[in-house]
Amino acid sequence: MANAVTNFETHSSLDTNVAFRYHWKVWRWTGIKPPHNINPQLYKLYAIVVNILATFLFPLSLIVNVFLTKTLQELCENLTITISDFQSNLKFINVYLVRRQLDRIRSILRKLDRRVQSEEEFAVLKSAISTAESSFLIFFRLYSFGTTLSVVKVLLAESRSLLFPAWFGVNWVDNLSTYMGVIIYQFFALVVQALQNVASDSYPPAYLVILSAHMRALEIRVKAVGQFKDEMQQPMSLTPEEQRKCLREFNECIKDYLNILKLHSIIQRIISKACLAQFACSALVQCTVGLHFLYVVDAANYEAQLMSIIFFVAVTLEAFVICYFGHMMSLQSSNLTYAFYSCGWLAQSPEFKRNLIITLMRTQRTSTIRAGSYIPVDLPTFVMLMKYAYSVFTLLIRFK
What we know:
By secondary structure, the protein is mainly α. It has helices spanning 2-12, 21-29, 40-67, 72-97, 99-113, 119-156, 176-223, 240-296, 302-341, 350-363, 379-399; strands at 370-371, 375-376.
C-alpha cells in the first residue's frame, strides 16, 4: 500500500513542461514572455530596447555590409553569415507570433501528465524530458563555442577587426573609443542573438520529443486495457461490470488520443514556418559555402576555410536534428494503430468495439510534421537535402 502511494505521488509530480524551462528563460530574457513578478510596462520597454538593438539593428548592419562588399570572397563570407542570421531572426519572430499557442501546449501537456498510470510510462516521459533538455544544452554549447571563437579571433588579430563583418557608418579603424563601442555593441548583440538562436533551433525537436513520448505513453496505456495484469493475455469473457470498467478506461484513452492530436496540430502550426526557413537556409548556405570553398578562398587561408566548414556543419546539423525527431515522431504515431488493435477487445461490449473501429480508422493516418504545410520533416527529406547539396558541389567542381 505504501509503495502504491509513493508511485502515485511520483506520477502526480510529473510535469513535462519542465523540458522547456530553458527555452522559457531565454524567451523571457529576450522579450517574448514577461515573468509574473515584473511590471508589464517596464518589461515592454526592456523588450523593445533589446530587440531593436539585437534583433533589428544587428542583422541590418550585416545586410548593408553585403551590398558594400568589393570582392567575391568578402561577398561569400558575408552572405553566409547574413543568411544564417536572417533565418535565425525569422525563427525568433515566429516564436513571438505563436507565443499564445505555446501557452496552449502547456495546458494540454498538464492534462496528459495527469494520465500517467505506470512506472513504464513515467520512465518514458522522464527520458524524453532529459533528451529535450540535452538538445538545448548541446545547441547552447555549440553557439557558445562559436561566440568564443569570434572573440578569440578579434583578440589575436594583428589589426583592428570586428566580431563579424558589418557596416556601422563610423570610423572605428582609427578611433579607439569608437572601436571599443562597436565591439561592445557587437558582443552584446551577438550574445542576445546566440541565446535566441539556441532557443529557436532547439525548441522544435524538444516539442517533437515530448509529443513522441506522450504517444509512447498512450501506447502503453492502451495495450493494458482489458488485459490480465499478470499474463497480459486477453480474457475470453468478462462480466458486465468488467466490460463497463474497460469501456471507461478505453474512452479515457480516446480522450488522451484526441489531446495528442490537438498537441500535434498546434506543434505543426508553430514549427512549420521555422522548419521551412531552416531548410531554405541550409540549401542557401550550402551553396554559398560550396562556391566560397571551391572558387574563392585561398588555400593558405585556414581561418576562412575553418569558418566555411563550421557554417556548413552547423546548418546541416540543425536540419538533421529536426528531421530525425520528426521521423521518430511519425514512426511512434504509426505504432498507435497496433497499440489500439492490441488491447483486450475480444470479450468487450459492442460499444467498446464500435469505438475501437472508429479510433483505428483515425490512427491509420500517420501524424507527420510538414515544413510550410508541404515538405515532410523526416529523414528522407534530409537525405534529399544532402543529395541536393552534393549535386551542387558536383556541378561546381565540373565548372571549376
